[in-house]
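Aim 2, interim progress: modelling of the adenosine-5-diphosphoribose-bound target.
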Amino acid sequence: MILGAGPAGLVLGNLLVAAGIDCVVLERASRDRVRTRARAGFLAAHTVRILERHGLAEGLRRHGRPHATCEFRTDDGRFVLDYGALGRGERHTVYPQQDLVADLLGRYLAAGGRIRFETEAVAVRDADGPRPEVAVRDAEGRPGRWRSRYVAGCDGQHGAARRSLPPGAVRHHRDHGVSWLGLLAEAPPSLDAVGYATHTRGFAGHMARTPEITRYYLQYAPGRPADAWSEERIWDELELRMRAAEHGPLRRGRIVGRQVVDLRSDVLEPLRHGSLLLAGDAAGLISPSAAKGANLAVLEAEILAEALIDDLTHGDSVGLDRYSARCLTHIWRAQEFSQWMIRLLHSPSGAGGEASFHDSLRRARIDSLRTSRSQQDWFAEHYVGV
Ligand code: APR
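Predicted structure of the complex, ligand included:
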């Protein structure tokens, strides 16, 4: 039983069905919503290798675009890192997540996978036994029950799996004290790179999604509503922070999506509770500062699939016993780098000596990234790695 049809749930479902294991995905959203929901879009090299290994990379091979540079714009000037030529020489593949999810869904159904859309998991019960039960509610609100040998909680940070964890579950968490206004613009990319701008008015970010759609981020006052600023105010603020006067104007267009994102992170430990296992955002939430979320979700799904296949096909439970520890190693390394990026891109809040000291450290980190080859290699390895 898999809760959730996001990257984690659908990669897991594809791998289990390919191994001949019967599974069903319970997804609260409609098929259309699942296939069109714009989310992330930067696939790490490791993620592409996993998808290729399992024959799930056809769409991204055809339509994905390699990406290997990021540009920093700061008070001390602008510099570009060709991270694809640094560290391990790995690149991202830009491929909108909704396209990847649509590919995964199509392959899963074509392989005989079962899914129930508009079916919300309400709770997972008897997880410490061999036949956990999932209580569900369908689109008409009718209750139902499903039982299976294992339940994979791939239903995100607000899903039923997290709500059903036993008292022993530990949640490590951190509120980074920073909010972003995430924007989706009907406009071609303005840079050939991922753009990171630090400014006294706050952070601004630029990430291409497709040749016609670009994602922007603006550091934003916590609690301010997403619709507080007009489109013109948004573009003016983006141009101010990205220093358009020095580096050229941004290519404007209609803002077709807005969402306030409070940068928070959390990690649940352990990721296995008897017959209930967590993967993706259900296992841990990571800030979008380093585009790690979807990549961790795919990695965890492959590790979980291998463990479940060993157990259900060969009666070997070693993979399941080690699942949590294996994933947490990757999760904490990703969290550490994401935290480093947040500190690099945002001036500390507050005033006085403490804040100015931390801001000077931040500028020294940027300067080290600008000038030190070893720091650039470290950055490239962690920026693209998982
Ligand atoms: N019952 C059934 N389905 C649910 C429930 C529920 N109670 N709650 C949530 N869902 C579904 C959501 O509708 C969604 O389709 O679970 C799915 C979770 O998908 P994601 O949020 O994409 O989570 P995941 O697969 O873990 O991928 C995580 O991908 O979205 C990007 O970068 C983002 O870090 C994130 C990563």
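The pocket of adenosine-5-diphosphoribose is lined by residues 3-9, 26-29, 34, 39-40, 97, 120-121, 154-156, 159-160, 280-282, 293-294, 297 (CB under 6 Å). The CA atoms of residues 203 and 250 lie 16 Å apart.
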